[in-house]
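R.M. (postdoc): so does anyone remember the format we settled on? I'll just put the structure tokens first.
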């Protein structure tokens, strides 16, 4: 007699790792599910870049739709301090540039004035015209 705990080998079918699939069955399954890109049965009609870009655009649109009606976040103390310092440094830089331009302009004007004084040639004085004397021929 066989032990009650043992398994009878003849009653259970053997385990098969792979089932045989005929070409006809394969064609039928392809028709029913359609050709898919991921299993290599169909060619891609678009490039991978286009597919990924489309997926990214969909995700971005979904994200923007979810958060577009949300009010902007208030600035905290560190952010306001940073922005104040940034504005102050920008104003200081603009003031420094304006001062440098003013100094350069003054130097240029002084150089032009010095050059004008050194190259001034005394202009000849205008000689007044000699008055013409009209002689009256009838008076003689």
């Amino acid at each position: 007699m066989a032990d009650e705990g043992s398994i009878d080998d003849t009653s259970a079918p053997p385990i098969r790792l792979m089932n045989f699939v005929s070409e006809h069955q394969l064609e039928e399954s392809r028709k029913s599910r359609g050709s898919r890109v991921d299993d290599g049965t169909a060619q891609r009609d678009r490039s991978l870049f286009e597919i990924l870009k489309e997926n990214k655009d969909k995700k971005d649109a979904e994200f923007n739709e979810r958060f577009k009606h949300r009010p902007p976040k208030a600035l905290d103390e560190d952010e306001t301090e940073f922005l104040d310092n940034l504005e102050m440094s920008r104003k200081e830089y603009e003031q420094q540039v304006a001062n440098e331009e003013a100094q350069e302009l003054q130097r240029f004007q002084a150089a032009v004035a010095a050059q004008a004084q050194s190259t001034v040639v005394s202009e000849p004085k205008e000689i007044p015209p000699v008055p013409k004397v009209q002689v009256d021929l009838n008076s003689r």
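R.M.: ...and that's the designed sequence above, right after the tokens. Also worth knowing: Helices lie at 23-33, 48-67, 77-118. The radius of gyration is 50 Å.
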